[in-house]
Amino acid sequence: MSDDGAGDGDIPAEFVTFKYPLPHLAAALLGKDPPRIVAMGSSSTAGREDVVPYPARLEMYLRRAYNNPRIDVINRGVGGQEADDEVGRFNDDIFPEPPPLVIWQVGTNAVFQNRDIDKVATKIAEGLARLREQPLDVVMMDPQYVPAMLGDKAEASDRIVSIIAAAAEKAGVSVFRRWALMRHWHVHNNIPLDRMIDPTDDAKLHQSDWSTQRVSVALSEAISKAPAAVT
Q1: What is the DSSP letter of 74?
Q2: Residue 175 backbone dihedrals phi, psi, to 5 degrees
């Protein structure tokens, strides 16, 4: 379990254990060039003015974990986008210089913006297929467990979480299960939902500084623990 001074919000091993290895990242960490990670996504990746986004935090934690100050996490988040928009940016934001690892955060706006989830599912599968054609590793990140994604949107949220898990399994890539981890904090650690959302966000969609930090710690641990190759 990670703590990193947070004092609460535990991180059980099931949430930081990836099923699939990260061989390209492992090789890059042993190479001469600075290891690069591209964080693709929407506002959960891009961040908001009052909360430092997860890519910047992840970079700090991974540099610490690997004792390597050259690790770069490049933020390619654009607020309001969903899979169709993001796949359209792959050619410009990922493929010119394929990084060893892409973290693709997806699914939130499919629910929040009431998009056609079937079409989003098709685009997620297409995007994963395109990513798997490149010499890189992929980790999917599913939506945040916050009030805006619950209530009358809970069923759609559960559906998109399941779609992401199934698509990732078919493509042979791991999922960072943000939805389940944040739900664990709320249900099992009795952390109020209000603590997990940005207090300046009237939509109650975006994560707070606290939950962003904890998610970043968990993701860093999952990446650090991932096997380098199939055993």
Answers
A1: E
A2: -120, 130
pLDDT in tens, the chain (231 residues): 344 444 579 999 999 999 999 999 999 999 999 999 999 999 999 998 889 999 999 999 999 999 999 999 999 999 999 999 999 999 999 999 999 999 999 999 999 999 999 999 999 999 999 999 999 999 999 999 999 999 999 999 999 999 999 999 999 999 999 999 999 999 999 999 999 999 999 999 999 999 999 999 999 999 999 988 765
**Homologous superfamily in CATH for domain 13-225:** SGNH hydrolase (3.40.50.1110)
Q: Three-state DSSP class for 178?
A: helix
Distance CA 196, CA 51 (A): 12
| C-alpha pair distances (Å), 189 with each of 9, 12, 192, 193, 198 | 6, 11, 9, 11, 19
Task: Give domain limits for the chain.
Answer: 13-225
Q: How many CA atoms lie within 13 A of 88 on its CB side?
A: 7
Residue 224 to residue 154: CA distance in whole angstroms: 32
